[in-house]
């Protein structure tokens, strides 16, 4: 999988966890019974995506520096 900068992974992780928790709470307590199952299910999906990005953040290895892009010092 392609390397993703840790700051971007953190932002995605927080966004998905936040919307997942909010979706579950709205689906369980505020939504009418006809649509509560769907809203809760979508919240669970968002929470699962947050868990995936948390896993990615914790297991991703640092990006190796590319020697071709370094500037050379003229001696």
Describe the structure.
The chain contains two helices and no strands. Helix 1 (about 5-30) packs antiparallel against helix 2 (about 35-60). By secondary structure, the protein is mainly alpha-helical. The mean pLDDT is about 90. The relative contact order is 0.18.
**Secondary-structure element series:** HH
Strand content: under 5%
Helix content: 55-70%
Rg, Cα atoms, Å = 20 Å
Largest sheet: none
- Structural class of the secondary structure composition? mainly alpha
Unreliable parts? none
Number of DSSP helical runs: 2
Termini separation: 39 Å
Mean pLDDT: 90
Tell me the total number of β-strands. Answer: 0
Label the overall shape: rod-shaped
List the keywords.
75 residues; mainly alpha; 2 helices; rod-shaped
In short:
The protein is mostly helical and 75 residues long. The protein contains two helices and no strands.
Describe the SSE topology.
Layout: H1 6-30, H2 36-59
Helix pairs in contact: 1-2
């Amino acid at each position: 999988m392609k390397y993703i900068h840790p700051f971007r992974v953190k932002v995605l992780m927080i966004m998905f966890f936040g919307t997942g928790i909010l979706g579950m709470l709205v689906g369980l307590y505020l939504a009418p019974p006809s649509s509560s199952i769907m809203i809760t299910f979508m919240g669970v999906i968002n929470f699962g995506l947050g868990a995936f990005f948390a896993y990615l953040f914790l297991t991703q290895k640092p990006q190796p520096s590319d020697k071709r892009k370094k500037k050379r010092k003229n001696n």
